[in-house]
Amino acid sequence: MENLTRKAFLQKLALLGVTGVGATSLLTSCGGGDSKPASQPQTSMPKPAAPAASNDPCSDLSGLTEAEAGMRTTFKYVTHSTEEGKNCTNCQLYVVPEEGKSCGGCTIIKGPINPEGYCMQWIAKQG
Ligand code: SF4
User: Fold this and answer.
1) 29, 88, 112, 116: which has the fewest Cβ within 10 Å?
2) Does residue 40 lie within any of the structural domains?
3) Comparing C-alpha atoms, which of 56, 53, 74 is closest to residue 116?
4) Predicted confidence (pLDDT) per residue in 21-47, tens digit
5) Residue 101 located in a structural domain
6) Among 82, 74, 77, which Cα is nearest to 93's?
7) Among the atoms of ligand 1, which is closest to the Cα of residue 107?
8) What's the CATH code of the domain at 125?
């Protein structure tokens, strides 16, 4: 009887041992082991592209208050006019850029103004 119990115990130990080795093998083959294979090739995925920055040089509104920035929306300012023959450069309210700068200004809308822009307040330049 004692031999049977001892035999059963040894069988259980053997099963546990096999199971333990099997689990370790499985973990290692799945990459879950503690050691990292040195020769495994590194797969490098391309990094996602950063969001495209605006290519409009006159889009920096950081110096404006919320209300001032909101005026651009209120007057439906766009950086590139779709109105035939109308843009900021031929608007009476346009302020030409300082020398060496590409963005002008506007007497009623704060912030940098793209010379090719337009808004609903456009008034034909006089003279
Ligand atoms: S009023 Fe409008 S169209 Fe005229 S310069 Fe200002 S933003 Fe441009």
Assistant:
1) 29
2) no
3) 56
4) 443 333 334 444 444 445 555 555 554
5) yes
6) 77
7) 6
8) 4.10.490.10
